[in-house]
Amino acid sequence: MPGLPSFRHFRTRLLVLILGLLTAALGVSYFLVTRANRANAIAHIEENLAGALRVFRFSVELRQERLAQSAKVVSADWPMRTLYLQEELDRHTLRSTLVSYAERLDVPVVTAFGTDGEMLASTMEGLSDELCGPFRHLVQKAESENADQAGDFAYLAGRLHVLVVVPLYAPRPNIIGWFGAAFPIDDTFAQGLKQTTLAEVTFVSGVGETSHRVLATTLPPAWASIVADQMPASRTEAAQTSLVTLDDEPYVTLFIPLGLLGDDPARIALQRSLAAELAPARDLEDIIVLISLAALLIAFLAALGAARNVSQPVQALATHTEVIARGDYGARLDLHRSDELGQLAESFNRMSAGLAERDRVRDLLDKNVSPEVAAQLMREGAALGGEEREVTILFADLRGFTTLSERMPPRELITLLNRYLDAMSGAIEAEGGIIDKFIGDEIMALFGAPVASSDGADRALAAALAMRTALAGFNATLAAEGLPPLAFGVGINTARVVAGNIGSHRRLNYSVIGDGVNVAARLQTLTRDPSHGTDIILSAATLAATRKPWATRHLGVLGVKGRKEAVEIHALA
Q1: CB within 8 A of 114, min separation 6: which ones?
Q2: Would you state the pLDDT for residue 375?
Q3: DSSP secondary-structure letter at 56?
Q4: Are 427 and 547 found together in one domain?
Q5: 7-75 and 187-197 helices cross at what angle (nearest 10)?
Q6: How far apart are CA 551 and CA 563, in angstroms?
Q7: 438-462 per-residue burial string, b: 16 or more CB within 10 A, e: under 16
Q8: Which of these three, 169, 184, 199, is where a domain ends?
């Protein structure tokens, strides 16, 4: 046949095509596998870090309770009460007694206070009365809550500690003093947490300081400084996750704020190596690469052998291609082969059927503009009829268009209207809305039909706000062109309506009918009333159907034209 390439040229191109497609498929598969492995690794690390955070909190709570119980043991001891009840308190003896209790109970810091909050003695060297503000804050907290203990995080002598205070009774409920206990959040504590959770741990000073201090860490000092520099600068109390690179290795890092008494929050950084988490997956990826290379080699040899049996059906394939090119999609190619060319012939036949199906889709699209509607018709057919479902209906009407039409030539007017409708349609479709129809300068849009949606009301309100923003931008463009600004009114209502194909057997239109549609249209007309002071009005039914908080203003319960029952309406801010 004239114009056909030589057999050798055709075979070469076929081999290149097959190998190229296979290479592309393997490359895409490898890319998707590596991306999925990375995403799964990050998700697994984040889950482990969340568990490590729970372990940290449980450990702190457990130690706080242990400190409180230890302090209560001290406060219940009669010699301690005797010391407190002396007319002249022997502070040296009191401190010796506290040191003895601290050693016996394995409590790092034990401090005694008077009822006025003055520090009487402490086992912590260098802890002056001026530095005991956190303890006094806890005493005030315990007194205000009438509690037997109070605890929290705070700095003592510049180091992060967990503090607990308990009252000394003589007898209950008479309080003659207070005991405070504390243990440091130091490198030893961080190492213990790492052994339990297998996560790197770093405690960093608060965001209010000019330079972040590393309070405790399981990392080398240089790495811990990098983590401190990467700490989020905001004072938010929410945990934040990010990737921090340490020695060219990414670490998934969870930053958690830690509230302190009288200071800006410190932060805990929990980290795990992404490379270590990905190591088993990387081994699997290497195996995939080897298998892919072997598959390419086998495919090349198989394709080379198969290409030698191509010459006979080439003419039939080329002829059938011309048949399809003429638009005869009903013709079929019968090669009666079980090899690749036989499959290619079947592919030609499936392509013919697909082209015929495409023509059918085009015919359906002539009757239904929305791709979602066309997809439904492909599944269910183009029969007349409908079904009842809950839908949110949006009506938008252009204000002052009649006046504008008297001042502009028809061609310019149509151009302006199309530009306006294009801007509004884009805002609606971006939120998943379906343009039901254009009625002159009015738009009717649906949310929840033909494709059901559980958040149709929220999408409708978001679309209305997007339309307002789009109109403001459009008006700025009109001002630059020397044209007057446009305004609109939007009415939104949620109701159960009948949705389906409406029309004749020759021409169909997917739409919705019912009282809820009329209410939406009437709400749009209510925006013309200047007393409402808004361009977007929604019904209480729509507001009740939303799942997100929206800024609205109650406008009252008003009657609408053509409806006996009044409608409660709101303005969308």
Answers
A1: 120, 177, 178
A2: 56
A3: H
A4: yes
A5: 130
A6: 27
A7: eeebbbbbbbbbbeebebbbbbbbb
A8: 184
Buried b (16+ CB within 10 A) or exposed e, 315-342: eebeebeebeeeeebeeebebeeeebbe
Count CA atoms closer than 13 A to 534's CA, side-chain side. 22
- Find the domain containing 124 and state its range: 76-184
Task: Sheet with 200-204: list strands edge to edge.
Answer: 214-217, 200-204, 263-273, 249-260, 240-246
Beta bridge partners of 268: 203, 256
Nearest to 196 by CA among 55, 338, 385, 22: 55
> Which of 139, 135, 94 lies closest to 115, judged by CA?
139
493 with 391: CB under 8 angstroms?
A: no
- 195 and 138 in one domain? no
Exposed e or buried b per residue across 29-45, where buried means at least 16 C-beta atoms within 10 angstroms of its C-beta: eeeeeeeebeeebbeeb
Host H or E run for residue 291: helix 274-307
pLDDT of 257: 85
The answer, yes or no, to whether the previous bond of 173 is cis (omega within 30 of 0) is yes
Pairing of strands 567-572, 536-539: antiparallel
pLDDT of residue 2: 46
Structure tokens at 100: 């003895």
Contact between 182 and 174 under an 8 Å Cβ cutoff? The reply is: no
My answer on whether 136 and 241 are in the same domain is no
Token pair 């972040």 is at which residue?
A: 212
Residues 6+ apart with CB under 8 A from 8: none
Question: What is the C-alpha to C-alpha distance for residues 119 and 269, in angstroms, rounded to an integer?
Answer: 34
Q: How many domains does the chain have?
A: 3
Q: Cβ of 245: how many Cβ atoms within 10 Å?
A: 11
Both tokens assigned to 479: 């001002």
Listed as ranges, residues in the chain with pLDDT below 70 are 1-11, 14-15, 87, 207-211, 234-237, 262, 300, 303-320, 322-323, 325-333, 335-343, 345, 348, 354-386, 504-508, 562
- The reply to whether 482 and 560 lie within a common domain is yes
Question: In this structure, what token pair is assigned to residue 223?
Answer: 């790495």
Amino acid at 251: Y
**Strands (DSSP E) along 205-306, which ranges?**
214-217, 240-246, 249-260, 263-273
Q: In the numeric block, which tokens belong to residue 388?
A: 């009842």
| DSSP code string of 444-465 | EEEESSSS--TTHHHHHHHHHH
Tokens 């009333």 appear where?
A: 529
